[in-house]
Amino acid sequence: MTTKATTSLIEHLFREHERFLWGICYRMTGNAADADDLVQETFVRAINSPPARLDEPLRPWLVQVAINLCRDLLRRRKRQVYEGIWLPSPIETESNDFDDQLAVATNDNPGARYDLLESVSFAFLLALEALTPSQRAVLLLRDVFDYSVAETAGALAMSEPNVKTTLHRARRAMSEYDRSRQIPTAELQQRTRQTMETFLRLLTSNDVAGIENLLARDVRQLSDGGGEFITARVPVIGREKVALFNLRIARLAKLTDVQFGWRMLNGLPALVVEYPQAPPQYAKRIVMLCELDGEGRIKRIHNVSATRKLSAVRPID
């Protein structure tokens, strides 16, 4: 077979698995822009150093390459100093692209521990940060994509006993998440949207008591500006502090033209806010995502404004 023919075959086979690989890379890294780069690098490696047997399924080989690249990136990221708070990058989960990814990834996996949509939620992705790169890879393959022990061992070049031990440790590290996990059902999505709308209305009317009543006692607000913009670089904790923090933001917003748009991001309704005339050093675009507690109050507010983190979120029309 000629080199040109081989390249054409690999490209055709790769495109069949591209969305699946992107889903793995995004969950591994929590960053859509990194997932784009890693999938492209996986393709380059497939072209430059293809597997010896192209008559065998290509997906296991591609998954192994992609996850190895993800693990390398995570190790590099751990050695680097991130300015401020690190948050995942939002992705849209109501588009046809995400539906296609789910269709490709699902593969009738009734044994999966975590739902595919749940596994891109901010709560889940932040919980993964407590895991080592290898633990993260094993947990995703076994508990999200429903790989068998043998398939996981093959994809990660690990022994089956090592896969079992690593999964046990990963699940133990996820135990706190498991105790309070909330699957993004249609009912939860509706409650989240209604609560966020109420939150915005109370901010507009400067209703401090109403805002505090809507917040959980231990509410935390986390902001990721990536060192680019003025933002809180430590968590804002507690009803009073979070209420005052958002009231200040609301007052600043009144001084400039502001546009709002709702999106379904990472399984839940989220707000995209654009400040076209924002002062220097302030973000012109912010995404706000909220998590509710069991009583329906807001327990987490995530604000993401770092430019590279918003690469997968469409601007407001």
Quickly list its features.
317 residues, alpha+beta, Butyryl-CoA Dehydrogenase, subunit A, domain 3, Nuclear Transport Factor 2, Chain: A, 2 domains, six-stranded mixed sheet, 12 helices, 13% strand, globular
CATH class of the largest domain: Mainly Alpha
Sum up the overall morphology in one term: globular
Major beta-sheet overview: 6 strands, mixed
The string of secondary-structure elements, in order, is HHHHHHHHHHHEEHEEEE
Mean pLDDT: 90
- The percentage helix is 40-55%
Distance between the termini: 49 Å
**Oligomeric description of these chains:** single chain
Low-confidence stretches: none
Spatially, the strands of the biggest sheet line up as: 2-1-6-5-4-3
Strand content bin: 5-15%
CATH topology of the largest domain: the name is: Butyryl-CoA Dehydrogenase, subunit A, domain 3
Q: What would your notes on this structure say?
A:
By secondary structure, this protein is an alpha+beta fold. It folds into 2 domains: 178 residues, Butyryl-CoA Dehydrogenase, subunit A, domain 3 (Up-down Bundle); 125 residues, Nuclear Transport Factor 2, Chain: A, CATH 3.10.450. Helices cover 52% and strands 13% of the residues. It has a 6-stranded mixed beta sheet with strand order 2-1-6-5-4-3. The N and C termini lie far apart (49 Å). The mean pLDDT is 90.
